[in-house]
Every structure is written in structure tokens, then in C-alpha cells.
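Form 7-S
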Amino acid sequence: MTKIKQKEKLMNYILSSLLCLPLFGAIVLSILPSWNVRLIKTIGLSVSLLNFVLSLFLWIFFDSSTAKFQFVETFSWLPASNMNFYIGIDGVSLFFIILTTFLVPVCLLVGWVNISKYVKEYFIAFLVLESFMIAVFCMLDLLLFYVFLKVFLFLCLLLLEFGDQEKERFERPISFFYILLLGQCLCYLLFYLSIFK
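Output:
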């Protein structure tokens, strides 16, 4: 077997592995009891570090001599409507994915001492957020990109709620929600104006 075939076989499902590993970690954390804070933190950080190491293989095997999408994976989603789960990366999304997988363990370490309430929920939300962030950067299907982006923004809202340990913890998430709502209204208005000139 040539080196190219070995590389293709090894890298065939790396993007889907990057998407599924944090989700698997979140499922494991959801099974654990909330009082076992040390185990929750250890598993959450270990999964995020493992995902970072896995993302480095994208950089190692990335071919910078071509502008085509690489590590492309396609799964049939709704065959009747010709909709597919279609992922791949280019040179820009490669570094965004590596940056994401690097920053998530850093953020979890920052919250290691500061987060004393909702620890289990905080770590689950961060792992799911990591998965959806990676999906946003590698999604090539426009409809699924939009769905993953919306869920990603909702998870950001949850993290603001869990991360705020003060009494008035709903103040910042509500402000974040209104800013997002305003941005979405402007996007829809511009889209409407561009179509119906």
C-alpha cells in the first residue's frame, strides 16, 4: 500500500471524529453524578485535549499546494431532497479548527477554579460547543451550516448563564440574546433587500 493510500485511509473520517469526540465526552459527563466534580473536570479536560491532538493531524497531512477542499466527507442526510451532510476544510478553516481545539482546554482550565456552581452543565456545554464550532468551520452544506451556527449561538448563551456565578446571572445572557436578535434582523433585512430590489 502506497503512502498516499495509507494517508487517505487514516484521514478518511478525521473530521467526523473531531465532531463526534466532544459529543461522546458530553454524553459520558451527563451520565456521571453531579457531586463528583473532580472526575467531571478531569474527563472534560482530557476529551478536549485529545481532540486538540487529533486536530493536529489535519495540519500534518494538509496539502497546501492545492486550493481544493480536503478531508471531504459526505453522508446522505435527506436523499429525497438531495440534502447531504457535507464537510471539508480549506486553508482558512484548518487554522480556525486548530484554534478552537486549542482554546477549549484553555477555557476549561480557566474555569477550573472559578466555576463552583453548575460544573457538570458547564463542562457539557463547552464540549458540545466545541463540536458545533468545529462543525461551523468545516460544514459545506449551507442549510446545515445555518443550523449548526444557530445551535452554537444558543450554547454561547448557555455558557454565559453557567459561567456567571453572581446573583444577577441572567443580565448578561439576555443582553447577548438581544444583540444576536438585532444582528439577525439586520441580516434578514439585507437578504430581503438584495433579493427584491
